[in-house]
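Protein: AcrR family transcriptional regulator
Species: Rhodococcoides corynebacterioides
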Amino acid sequence: MQLRRDDVVDGALTILDDYGLADLTMRRLAGSLGVAPGALYWHVANKQALLGAVSDRILSRLDTVPATGTPDVLDAVRGRAHGLRDALLAHRDGAEVVASSLSARTVTHPVRDTVADDLLATGLTPEDAGHAADALLYYVLGATSDEQSRLQMESAGALAPDRHPGDDGGLDRDATARFDFGLELFVDGVRSRVRTLNE
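Structure follows.
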């Protein structure tokens, strides 16, 4: 059977999910696919290109984020943020892989443009929508990276319990509640900016 690019990406995702980013090497991937390492380079130029292709696959889940069905255009922003978080959490080290690939400019998925379009619909200027899209992506990637790191440390028994005075098990213990709190601060900021633009 001839090796296809999709086979390479599927194999890389399997290794990522089973072992994590640190163990995703071209040699290991080639071995898992039963090919010589050189065969991979017909499909991806190098490891960074491979991670870009893996990131595109992870981000492709955003293409199926359903419409909110509400008149509040900020609901689309919330939905996109949650869709991105879910896509990242679906794969071990997903946030780290996508963040590094976005920085390396090896992602072809239009995630930033899609988020910017959602934000443009709120009434922001094109420039503000672009900056806000960057801010939202950084927030989601950072928050999810922290969440994934905590989950991995917890599963390895290496995470000390949170010790915050007055901790009642709320935001400190509920990753989704913590994420939603930050997201609402972002949404409030967008609303405020739009009001300022309309004054």
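Remarks: DSSP finds nine helices and no strands in the chain.
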